[in-house]
Design brief:
The complex is a heterodimer of chains A (about 450) and B (about 120). By secondary structure, chain A is an alpha/beta fold. Chain A contains 10 helices and 29 strands. The radius of gyration of chain A is 23 Å and the shape is globular.
């Protein structure tokens, strides 16, 4: 058994893990970066398309190029030790934290650390999760798996495809498959609006005249050894109208029906999970219900832009440093002992704890707590599609901020920053503010 | 005056553009007005999409490596839509051996467009 000690252990070496490691090293923290694949980069290595880095680097990069930027930074930091091909199996919480990992090179690794950043990313929802009726032939894949098979392994998955779900991964793969010679027959979306970024509808579907069927589902899969077709049924007035079912012949089906934050390990050692996001409940320091354990990236909530993942990971590393350095001293900040383990996000908590609450038309807000004495960055998603909407942030009857949003849709994450000056004129001051939840509304 | 409604794809915001244009060249050149863009890229996109639509191509090429079967590549600038499939055909003819550096040119000045195809990943073995 290999035994080591670090200031910080980062679990996951993808976009979030790499950015957190870079920042932690800059702050002088002796950091272990643990990654189960044989290289860093995570999902970025297979995302060969561009659109990454426009916000963070002000350049348009492909996934591998974005990963390369961080790989270069990490290689320069002697404070970061990278453990590749290593899977974290267990975390023990006690006076200190112990992380147990298995690696084919080193065998069992036991790492003692006072702080952990969870950056494990997410996994794909599959056919079993959504229960599509029909036979079970070969040729039914999740979109991310096909992306790996095509871009890394060099396979052509079939000749003709139907894509279920208009999420970004499905749209990107519609274009990719067309460019490697498949006929993509249709994209089927259950909601009345597309899930992915609008730019992807244009450059991945419209460019190739691939039809997008909104408010439709794949109601049956046909084929014995291999897929040979699907039934597609429209949803009318909330119900399947089976009389209008039509069939599309194809030999390949891609499922792009959502990502699930990978928190199996987190749940195992007692991290409280937010049922709205599938990720940890976090306070104003991105700290989970387990003291000294932070969370960022897709394992916290599913992002659309890697630039926001990077930003969130940098914040998490900065908060981890603060925690190790001086602790979180202000009386207005949350102490983790106040959170119960199976908390429902709408539970009323003790006064004096500054809590955020997703309200009208907002699905969730991260983080779940805020600190009015410093700058706070919030990420949220809308439940509605609307042009010329308004984001209203209020506490009690007082509006803290309102912001005009030209266009909102559930698939496009919204971010907003609040500064101490936004709370300066709150009637009754911070003591009164502590009694109210900070509500986020989209009108 | 013709009108076209487009969604800009230059960045993930996806501004809704309205492009007014004359199909025939006038004495002062091509008249095109773009509205709805939040940044200068949108103006460029609006004009080009109407006159000569272009796209950046990202794809993979064959590489004989222990690590993976394909190496990701991209065009250094957007190319005319009608050149995309011929370019892909040429990319699929490439037969590469490591080491390949990130940014290394694999196809130079494709069909005299001034556009190259470069590697987007370093593969050393």
């Amino acid at each position: 058994m290999t035994e080591k000690k670090y200031d910080l252990v980062i679990i996951g070496g993808g976009a979030a893990g790499m950015a957190a490691a870079d920042t932690a090293a800059e702050k002088g923290l002796k950091t272990a970066l643990i990654e189960r694949e044989d290289r860093l980069g995570g999902i970025l290595n297979q995302c060969i398309h561009n659109g990454f880095g426009l916000q963070f680097f002000k350049e348009e990069l492909t996934g591998p190029e974005y990963a390369h930027r961080f790989l270069e930074r990490i290689t320069k930091h002697h404070e970061v030790e990278t453990f590749l091909g290593t899977t974290v199996m267990d975390v023990e919480i006690g006076d200190t934290k112990v992380v147990y990992g298995y690696s084919h090179k080193l065998g069992v690794i036991k790492i003692q650390t006072p702080a952990i950043i969870l950056a494990m990313g997410s996994r794909e929802r599959n056919r079993g999760n959504i229960g599509i009726p029909g036979s079970r032939p070969a040729g039914v894949f999740t979109a991310g798996l096909v992306q790996r098979l095509v871009n890394i392994e060099g396979y052509k998955p079939g000749e003709s495809a139907v894509i279920i779900g208009s999420g970004d991964i499905g749209l990107i793969m519609a274009r990719r498959l067309t460019w490697i010679g498949l006929k993509v027959k249709a994209v089927i979306e259950i909601q009345p609006y597309p899930s992915g970024l609008t730019r992807n509808i244009v450059q991945c579907l419209n460019d190739f005249d691939i039809p997008l069927y909104l408010s439709h589902v794949v109601s049956r899969i046909y084929g014995s050894d291999r897929v040979d077709g699907v039934d597609v049924t429209p949803i009318e007035e909330g119900k399947l109208n089976t009389e209008k079912t039509f069939k599309i012949e194809c030999d390949t089906i891609l499922l792009s029906v959502g990502l699930i934050p990978e928190n199996e390990l987190s749940r195992k050692f007692g991290v409280a999970i937010n049922p709205e996001t599938g990720g940890a409940i976090v306070d104003a320091h991105l700290m989970t219900s387990v003291e000294g354990v932070f969370s960022c990236g897709n394992v916290l909530h599913i992002h659309d832009l890697v630039d926001y993942v990077t930003e969130e990971a940098i914040s998490a590393a900065n908060f981890a440093f603060q925690y190790l350095d001086k602790g979180f001293e202000s009386e207005y900040t949350l102490t983790p002992g106040n959170i119960q383990t199976h908390i429902h996000p709408k539970t009323v908590v003790k006064a004096g704890i500054f809590e955020t609450e997703p309200s009208t038309n907002v699905k969730y807000v991260i983080p779940n707590k805020y600190n009015p004495t410093r700058e706070n960055r919030f990420f949220m998603r809308s439940l509605i599609v609307k042009n010329n909407a308004k984001l209203v942030i209020k506490a009690g009857d007082t509006i803290i901020k309102d912001k005009r949003l030209l266009h909102v849709q559930p698939s496009e994450m919204i971010s907003v920053t609040l500064k101490p000056k936004d709370f300066k004129n709150y009637p009754g001051g911070l003591e009164k503010l502590a009694d109210e939840k900070l509500e986020f509304l989209i009108l | 005056m013709k009108h076209k409604q487009l969604i800009c794809i230059s960045c993930p915001i996806g501004c809704h553009l309205e492009v007014e244009y004359e199909e025939k060249l006038s004495d002062s050149g091509q008249i095109i007005h773009v509205k709805g863009n939040r940044c200068p890229k949108g103006e460029v996109y609006g004009r080009e999409e109407v006159l000569s639509p272009k796209r950046t191509v990202t794809a993979t090429a064959l590489i004989h490596s222990k690590l993976q079967a394909r190496i990701p590549v991209k065009t250094t600038a957007p190319i005319l839509k009608e050149l995309i499939f011929p370019l892909l055909k040429e990319i699929y003819q490439l037969n590469l051996k490591p080491p390949i550096k990130i940014g290394e040119t694999l196809i130079k000045n494709y069909k005299n467009t001034g556009i190259d195809v470069v590697s987007t990943m370093e593969i050393f073995e």
